[in-house]
């Protein structure tokens, strides 16, 4: 195994050490980033202890202490507390001129810039929890001040999966709805398939094993094949066979419309989170 490397961008301070921060930190450390380059502010003692124990990162009970000396701040708190957290860091932002990367759903770059005191290099990033395993994907949008530092943000997030640059900030809500929230839709499908398998007489263990490996296999085909999803689907669907019976049932039940409405609702919710926390 290679030695942990220092981040080329210097120390990173995570402000918030909850679910998504944990996935990112775990992914970065597993990919060889030195734990000593990662500082975390998290008010919940049990979460601090777990992060320290599992990844060896330095944890603090307040944002200012973690941010001190860090050239990149990764803001990983809920949208509802972002304004207050940024206000508490505004003085330090003026002195340190950090690159501020926010992963909060909805909260805009101009809100973050204003709350941090103005003239701040802000990148909005929308990662997802598979980052923990190095198979996340992150949408990235940079404000004008962050444009020269875009590569720093991309370099950091690239460690936990590919990144996609987004030029229109308004599209970040759609990114959130598709890939930020997306793993939850797949987990919902897994739950539903497992229950349905049990309803057809399978044991819980057998249903679980069949569903998990089927999702892994399908996702692997989707990512490793040049062919689009509909072609891969057609190959499973024998005319007059079992798959066709299931697909017809999905279509008759409005599956595509339902997915469309769900993703539209998530996109809308992103916009609401921005307005509600103004
Ligand atoms: N969970 C996910 O899959 C994803 C979440 N996000 C975004 O990441 C952000 C965090 O979400 P989660 O990790 O799911 O939430 P979470 O609730 O697990 O984590 C937020 C953490 O911030 C901490 N916190 C609260 N006030 C703080 C303060 N003043 N200073 C430092 N830390 C403070 C909380 O104690 C909590 O542990 C949200 O803005 C969300 O929109 C983005 C992409 C995916
Ligand atoms: O549910 C949420 O609001 C966050 C953003 C994307 C995933 N989790």
From TrEMBL:
Entry-linked InterPro entries: 6-PGluconate_DH-like_C_sf, NAD(P)-bd_dom_sf, P5C_Rdtase_cat_N, P5CR-like_CS, P5CR_dimer, Pyrroline-COOH_reductase
Pfam hit, one: F420_oxidored
The keyword Glycosyltransferase belongs to this UniProt entry's keyword annotation: no
Pathway named in the protein's UniProt entry: Amino-acid biosynthesis; L-proline biosynthesis; L-proline from L-glutamate 5-semialdehyde: step 1/1
Entry superkingdom: Bacteria
Domain Pyrroline-5-carboxylate reductase dimerisation: 169-273
EC number(s) given by UniProt: 1.5.1.2
GO BP terms in the entry: L-proline biosynthetic process
Keywords, ordered alphabetically: Amino-acid biosynthesis, Cytoplasm, NADP, Oxidoreductase, Proline biosynthesis
Iron is among the record's keywords: no
Record's subcellular location: Cytoplasm
A GO term from the CC aspect: cytoplasm
Residues the record lists as binding NADP(+): 15-20, 76-79
Catalyzed reactions per annotation: L-proline + NAD(+) = (S)-1-pyrroline-5-carboxylate + NADH + 2 H(+); L-proline + NADP(+) = (S)-1-pyrroline-5-carboxylate + NADPH + 2 H(+)
UniProt domain Pyrroline-5-carboxylate reductase catalytic N-terminal: residue ranges: 12-106
HAMAP family: P5C_reductase
Family of this protein: Belongs to the pyrroline-5-carboxylate reductase family.
Protein known as: Pyrroline-5-carboxylate reductase
Gene that specifies this protein: proC
